[in-house]
């Protein structure tokens, strides 16, 4: 059972009973999407930030930094990417953990490996792909996503772009280091509440704008659009599918049915998977949240590196799965 089923019921009631909008219309679905996802994202963010804050109060930042910042930097990227795979977060929900890594002193490139892997590689999507397309496609999906996450983190780490992260993030790092681990439960809870409220206060407007744009686009880019303009014989199909996927917002499991529909309409599987990876790994709401914690230049660098990786993977899939 979906834990957000009550939220869905509430959104349906507000939109179709209170507002009186007609079900299964583009406008009604868009408003429903906005209300449902706004409530869901704020619940997820609050719970995740609070939980991570409590856990972090037990862990000295030095320990986290030492685990992910060993001499062999590849180990840090590998560990962060693996941790991203096993954490079932969408792109927006992964941001608090990304911030936690930075504030613990983990190198920026390694934190990006997590940020890419967490939304892009989803265990539910893996199972669904396995059931619909078989083991080969499922393995290519998880391996390619993992490689993109690691390489993206390594490249960003080499660029030395720490100056493009907002200063308040590093100020939090200093404060957290002073907290240490000798805290009573009431202090931990108080710290987690304040930290959660502080982060929500900084990003709430960006979340609303991002979800609003996603809701507006939701339903306006039907499967027929990609089927018409990104068919298997078009050389530009993969880049187009990637660009179309960025403004949309969904988790991997939510976009899988569209992947299946596109495949049935004749779109090459590599193209549809590139679309799915762009939707989950490069979502516009995620960019808007990240805009509060990093400068636009770093977001562009991040999106460009991941986007190139996704496009390359799409072409590779189409070549392998001919």
Structure description:
By secondary structure, the chain is mostly helical. The chain has one domain (5-320). The protein is 78% helix and 0% strand. It is built from 16 helices and no strands. The protein has helices spanning 5-18, 26-58, 61-68, 73-86, 91-103, 108-120, 123-133, 135-159, 167-179, 185-217, 223-229, 237-245, 252-264, 269-281, 284-290, 296-320. Helix 1 (5-18) packs antiparallel against helix 2 (26-58) and helix 2 packs antiparallel against helix 10. The chain is globular and about 60 Å long. The relative contact order is 0.13.
* Helix residue percentage: over 70%
Low-confidence stretches: 174-180
Number of helices: 16
The CA-CA distance between the termini, in Å, is 37 Å
Order of helices and strands: HHHHHHHHHHHHHHHH
Specify the overall morphology.
globular
């Amino acid at each position: 059972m979906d834990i957000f089923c009550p939220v869905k019921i509430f959104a349906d009631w507000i939109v179709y009973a209170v507002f009186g909008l007609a079900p299964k219309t583009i406008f009604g679905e868009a408003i429903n999407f906005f209300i449902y996802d706004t409530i869901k994202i704020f619940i997820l963010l609050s719970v995740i930030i609070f939980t991570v804050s409590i856990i972090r109060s037990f862990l000295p930042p030095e320990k986290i930094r030492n685990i992910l910042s060993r001499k062999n930097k590849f180990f840090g990227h590998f560990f962060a990417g693996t941790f991203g795979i096993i954490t079932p977060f969408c792109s927006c929900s992964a941001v608090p953990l990304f911030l936690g890594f930075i504030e613990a002193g983990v190198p920026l490139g390694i934190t990006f490996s997590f940020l890419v892997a967490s939304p892009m590689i989803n265990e539910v999507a893996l199972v669904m792909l396995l059931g619909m397309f078989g083991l080969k496609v499922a393995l290519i999906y998880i391996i390619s996503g993992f490689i993109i996450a690691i390489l993206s983190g390594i490249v960003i780490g080499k660029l030395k772009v720490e100056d493009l992260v907002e200063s308040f993030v590093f100020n939090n790092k200093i404060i957290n280091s002073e907290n240490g681990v000798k805290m009573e439960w009431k202090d931990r809870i108080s710290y987690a509440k304040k930290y959660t409220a502080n982060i929500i206060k900084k990003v709430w407007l960006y979340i609303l704008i991002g979800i609003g744009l996603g809701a507006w686009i939701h339903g306006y880019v039907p499967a027929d659009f990609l089927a018409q303009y990104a068919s298997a014989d078009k050389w530009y199909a993969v880049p187009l599918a990637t660009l179309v996927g960025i403004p949309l917002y969904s988790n991997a499991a939510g976009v899988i049915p569209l992947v299946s529909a596109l495949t049935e309409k004749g779109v090459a599987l590599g193209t549809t998977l590139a679309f799915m990876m762009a939707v989950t790994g490069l979502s516009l709401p995620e960019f808007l949240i990240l805009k509060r914690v990093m400068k636009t230049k770093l977001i562009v660098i991040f999106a460009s590196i991941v986007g190139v990786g996704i496009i390359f993977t799409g072409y590779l899939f189409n070549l392998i799965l001919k």
